[in-house]
Design goal:
three-stranded antiparallel sheet
């Protein structure tokens, strides 16, 4: 099966640039972000008309002093204990938002697992493997990228583990 990358458009993000450079098949979905929305991920699922279990949020946690990315379905939450275990750590807590933004190069609500300023270890929730494609942030609020979980795993060197909970 031949791979075909979506052409980079003006206003691209580091995430879409990384996908294009890798020759990965992906689709960009944009929607009008509502700043008053209480949940960026659930807003994306609703705006795109995609089931919430196929839209994944990117969270940054501190595991034993190291920032780690967790990619979990927007309909659930992150199991910090499972995340720590998945990366061989003991304790995990949500990272300071300013540290997450500074390290990834993205703003909260638009952090992508792809094209980060400093590439962080990544754990993708195992439920992603039950879908042919999933959506993750493309690096800006109101912009999602749809790709196969296998491509996301390969591009981020992610570990697949059950780190999300419903």
């Amino acid at each position: 099966m031949a791979k075909k990358a979506k052409k980079q458009q003006s206003g691209g993000t580091p995430a879409t640039v990384a996908l294009t450079a890798a020759g990965t098949v992906f689709t960009v979905h944009s929607y009008e972000h509502d700043p008053s929305s209480p949940s960026y991920g659930e807003e994306a699922a609703e705006a795109l008309g995609v089931p919430a279990d196929r839209v994944f949020k990117t969270l940054v946690a501190d595991v034993d002093g190291e920032l780690v990315v967790a990619v979990v379905p927007v309909a659930g939450s992150l199991d910090l204990k499972a995340l720590a275990s998945a990366v061989g750590g003991k304790r995990a807590a949500m990272a300071d938002p300013a540290a997450a933004e500074r390290t990834t190069g993205y703003v909260r609500g638009g952090i992508s697992p792809l094209g980060q300023r400093k590439r962080l270890r990544t754990v993708l929730d195992a439920s992603a493997g039950t879908h042919s494609t999933i959506c993750v942030s493309a690096g800006r609020r109101g912009l999602e990228v749809e790709l196969s979980p296998q491509d996301l795993t390969a591009l981020t060197d992610a570990v697949l583990a059950p780190v999300g909970r419903t």
